[in-house]
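Before the break, one more example. Copy the sequence into your notebook; we will annotate it together after we see the structure.
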Amino acid sequence: MKKPVRSTAKLEEPKTLLGRFLFDLIIVFLGVTLAFGLDDFRQARDEAHYRQSMLAALRVSLADWAGHGAQIDRQVGAMLHSFDEARAQGKKPPLPIYRETGGERPPNRAWDGIIATGAARALDPDLFFRLSRFYSRGDSFGDRYMRYNAFTETRVLPYLGDRAAFYGADGKLKPDYSAYVDRLRDLQREDRALVNEAAVLRDSLPD
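Here is what the structure looks like once it is written out:
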């Protein structure tokens, strides 16, 4: 008795189903891979755009340092020059007083933002260190100015109409006020150094 012969269609049907399954699986894999690739591309593009925005803000911050610091240097320098000339002539001139008209602390927001968001990873390590040191010095400069300004408001401004409050009977500045003028000289020197460093760092930032 002969065995029944299976039809070719029935033999090929499992292979066809397996082929379709593998084909669908490949399509799904390619779709998922493409989706991840597009997402990575968008993320990289957004990060690059954000990095450029933060670097632009940092460049503006450093330019502000260089520009405004140069104005401070000129203003304080003129005050000290006039004061020193008057003292050399034996006069008792008013104390040189610098008052910051804007904020009392340096503009560090751009750098704080770069640190907070991790965008600093895109910076060269040496440049990152130099920027960190610069803004740390900027904070220190702000602290020193605030101490100077506190003395100005409590020990100088209330007595502007009384030269005897500042000068002794021998015509010399009293020790506290001599030190006050020296602190202004210190601020000018530190400001000048920061101005020069800000300009160098601004020009060192990557495009």
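The chain has four helices and no strands. The CA atoms of residues 82 and 187 lie 17 Å apart. Try to locate both features in your own notes.
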